Predict the structure.
Amino acid sequence: MDESPADFSRPPAGRSADARPLRPARTTADPEDDAGEPFLRARRRVPVRRGLLPVWARTRWGKIAFSAAVLTAVAAAAALILAARDFFDHDPRFRIESAASIQTLGNSPGSPASPLAGVELTRADLLSVFGSDVGHNLLRVPLEKRRMSLEQIPWVENATVMRLLPNQLRVAITERTPIAFVAVHGRIQMADVNGVILDMAPLQMAARRYSFPVVSGIGPADPLSERSARMHIYQRFIAELDSTGEHISAQLSEVDLSDPDDVRATLPANGSDILLHFGQEDFLPRWHNYQAHIAQWQQQYPHLASIDLRYEREVVLKMAGDPAANADAHPAPKPAQAAPQATRTPPAEHSSKTHKPQPAKHTPPQKAHESPAKPHAGRGAA
C-alpha cells in the first residue's frame, strides 16, 4: 500500500515522536547544512534612514510650519543681538565720563608699576592720545590704534591699553632709559640703547643729574637699525670698562662710534684731551695698558694727543702737531703706515717690565714737537 505524502510527517506506527534518534551537535560550521536549512541563519538588519525633519514636518503643511518656526527663531535672535548692542552702545554706565576714568601706570626707576607722575612723561602727555575718547562709549575705543599712537611718543618704549568695565581705561607704559648724550645740530640730547634720540630741556637734564659720555657717530638721519647696532657696541664697551667697579666710564668725555671696528674714546689728561683707540674687543685690558704707561708717555711726550692701543705688543703714540691725531673719521695708521720720522721699536717679548717709547735718533723728541712742519709720531712697546 502506497503511503501518502502526509504520512511522512507522522512517526511510524508503534513509535512515539519522542523516540526519534537525536541528531548529533555540530562542532564546526557546515555550509551544506546551512544551505539546506536557511531558517537557522539570522537575517541582516538594514538601517532605516530617517530625515532631518521630524515626522510631522514631512508633510506639505508641516514643512511650511517648520520653516516659519525657524524664521521666527532667527528673527528673535537677531532682535536680541541688536537690542544688546544698542544697550552697550548707549547705556550711560559704559561712558568714559572724564579723564579721571583713564588710569596711567608706568615703570619709573626704583618704583616699578607705580602711578606715572612726572618721571619723563607727564600724565598730560599720555592723556593727549585719548582726548577724543572722553565722553564716549568705552567699547568704542580702538585699543590697538591707541597703543600704536602711544608708542609714537619718543619716550615710550612699549605700551598696553585695556578696558576695565564698565567705564574705565588702563594705560601702562614702559619708558625709555637714556644711556648717552648725543650732539644733534648743536644741541645736547640723549639716546637709549636702541639709538632712539630723546629730547629734554637742559634744566630737566640738570635736575635729573644725568651724567653720560657724549656719543658721536650716530644721528637722527641714520637708519634706526644702524643706530641700534652702534649703541649696542657702546653699551658693551661701557659695561666692560665698568665691570670691575672702577667706574672707568665716568672718566670719558666722548665716545666715537663712527667706525664700528674701532671704538675711540676721548678723556681729559693734564689739561688736554687724549684720544684712545680701543678697537672692537679687549676694552678693559687695553685700558689697563694705557693706565699703566700714561705717566711715562706724557713725561717723555708732553704733547701726546692720541694713543692707539689696538696692537698686541706695541702702541702708536701721536703728537698734537700730527694732523691725523685730530681726524675723528680716520683711525690711527697701522705700524706699516707710520710717518717717515716715526720711531719704531721691534715687538718685545711678553714681560711685566715697562718699555718707554724711544725718540728718533736724528732729532730729540722735544724739538720735533716744537716744529709744526714736522709732525711726530712715537711708537713704543707696551
